[in-house]
Design goal:
Number of domains: 3
Structural class: alpha+beta
Radius of gyration: 34 Å
Strand content: 5-15%
Number of strands: 8
Shape: extended
Oligomer: single chain
Helix content: 40-55%
């Protein structure tokens, strides 16, 4: 049974302008430039340039009066009879030469492997198998799938019954391709494929092959004493063999992929911090971001037609509605850009004030512990707003370019009660590992003792966590001869 009743609700909704502001606040400078260009293309009311002065406005009005007959709101009114010559252009003669700008593009890793396949004399079945195997090789150059799984796929997808030996034979052919190591199913096989291409009559290379073939586990775990004992060699011989192994490429496909078509990300800083005689000066990087304004031509046109809307036809009213929507959209967009600039400057100035000692010299040991809440309290902004500002934004300083997130870190107390940033502790940890004796690397327990002696009360598990965040291996894997 249907009933009518009144119900009062309290809902929190974002207006289209607020949503637009949030989206603009999240994107970095390089995406903002693209977003502005898109808006300029879609909205004819929006144009580049700063707001005009009074004298410039008078000059523009005079120009608009002269051009009134050439351009009016009627251009936006519907025209059912459009001549065909306006819709297409065939103003090229038959003997006219059309010159197009050619462009070059590097071949991909897979294309280079297929090109080498064409140089081999294979049967029709082998060629089909080889193409299928090549399709399963990843960008690093490895075949990550088992041969049995490839045989099952061929049986189900193509209806082709193939033996393990037939696929393995084709794989051996692919492993002979360049670069060396391609088609390997493991790191050990990849390194062996590369070392086997070298001169095995050389004692150093022959020893390197024996280590990779028979003592790979000891090599990866850096149990050098076991290798020396089992092979009956001197430490200097092992050192030469290890140097030969370290010259091999563990990712044979990676080197080709990087130089053949992979794009590199260009960093455009959102802020520029300069040091001058008066101190530090912060700017927004607006080199590639044009100033925007509402076209006065459209604005005056809308005012004129609004004043005479009583005598306007239906088509004119529709055209006026269209122009009004575009005017409102342009004003909202300009306001959102200005709010973005103000919010970003407010946030970055707060970060600059909070980390003033660090920004003077760029010394990590002078960086204070700082979280989003600290900046939110300084700026009276919401934490989510601060998070959007620092997301994917960069600042160019006199000591390098950094992500804004780099300046945020947790804090810890020393034995004297002083609060320090965890980044300072990581820097000290990194220095300790960098200066250690590589024959006897410092364990996490020993590193914890060293930090405690320096006044940083840190447990072994915390040292292990910081070491992993710095991408530093355990002591056993840092060992060198």
């Amino acid at each position: 049974m249907l009933k009518q009743r009144l119900q009062q609700k309290l809902l929190q909704k974002l207006s289209p302008q607020q949503i637009q502001m949030i989206k603009l606040l999240e994107i970095p400078a390089i995406q903002l430039e693209q977003r502005i260009k898109k808006e300029l293309e879609e909205n004819p009311v929006l144009e580049e340039g700063a707001d005009d002065s009074f004298e410039e406005q008078e000059e523009i009005k005079e120009e608009q009066t002269e051009q009134q007959e050439e351009f009016s709101l009627e251009d936006y009114m519907q025209d059912d009879e459009i001549p065909g010559y306006r819709l297409s252009s065939h103003n090229h003669s038959s003997d006219q030469k059309r010159e197009e700008i050619p462009f070059s593009m590097g071949s991909t890793f897979q294309e280079q492997l297929k090109a080498q396949l064409g140089l081999r004399k294979l049967s029709e079945e082998q060629e089909l198998l080889a193409e299928y195997v090549l399709g399963n090789i990843d960008d690093d150059g490895y075949l990550r799938r088992e041969i049995e799984a490839i045989a099952d796929d061929l049986a189900f997808s193509v209806g082709m019954e193939v033996s393990y030996e037939a696929i393995h034979e084709v794989l051996m052919i692919i492993q002979d391709f360049d670069p060396g190591g391609v088609g390997a199913r493991s790191l050990q096989e990849c390194l062996l494929l590369q070392i086997n291409r070298k001169d095995l009559t050389d004692p150093v290379i022959l020893l390197a092959q024996k280590i990779l073939k028979n003592h790979f586990d000891e090599f990866t775990n850096k149990h050098y004493e076991k290798i020396i004992q089992r092979l009956g060699i001197e430490e200097e011989e092992l050192k030469e063999a290890l140097e030969e192994i370290l010259r091999l490429n563990p990712k044979p496909g990676g080197a080709m992929g990087e130089s053949q078509g992979k794009s590199f990300q260009h960093i455009v800083p959102d802020f520029i911090l300069e040091e001058n005689e008066t101190g530090l000066q912060l700017y927004l990087n607006s080199n590639n971001v044009p100033e925007l304004r509402v076209s006065r031509t459209y604005s005056d046109m809308f005012e004129n037609y609004t004043a005479n809307k009583a005598n306007a036809s239906r088509d004119e009213k529709d055209a006026v509605t269209f122009v009004k929507q575009k005017l409102d959209s342009a004003r909202w967009f300009i306001d959102a850009i200005r709010q973005r600039q103000n919010t970003m400057l407010l946030t970055m100035n707060a970060i600059l004030e909070y980390q003033h000692n660090y920004f003077l010299e760029g010394d990590e040991t002078r960086m204070r512990p700082m979280i989003l809440k600290d900046i939110a309290e300084m700026t009276d902004l919401d934490i989510s707003t601060i998070s959007r500002v620092v997301n994917s934004k960069y600042i160019q300083t006199h000591f390098g370019i950094y992500l804004l997130k780099y300046f945020f870190s947790e804090g810890m107390q020393t034995d004297s009660g002083e609060e320090v940033s965890t980044r300072e502790i990581k820097r000290i940890l990194q220095d300790c590992i960098g200066s250690e004796d590589k024959r006897k690397p410092l364990t996490d327990d020993r590193l914890s003792v060293i930090l405690n002696e320096k006044g940083y009360l840190i447990a072994r598990r915390t040292v292990a966590k910081y070491r992993e965040q710095l991408n530093l291996p355990v002591a056993r894997l840092r060992k060198e001869l």
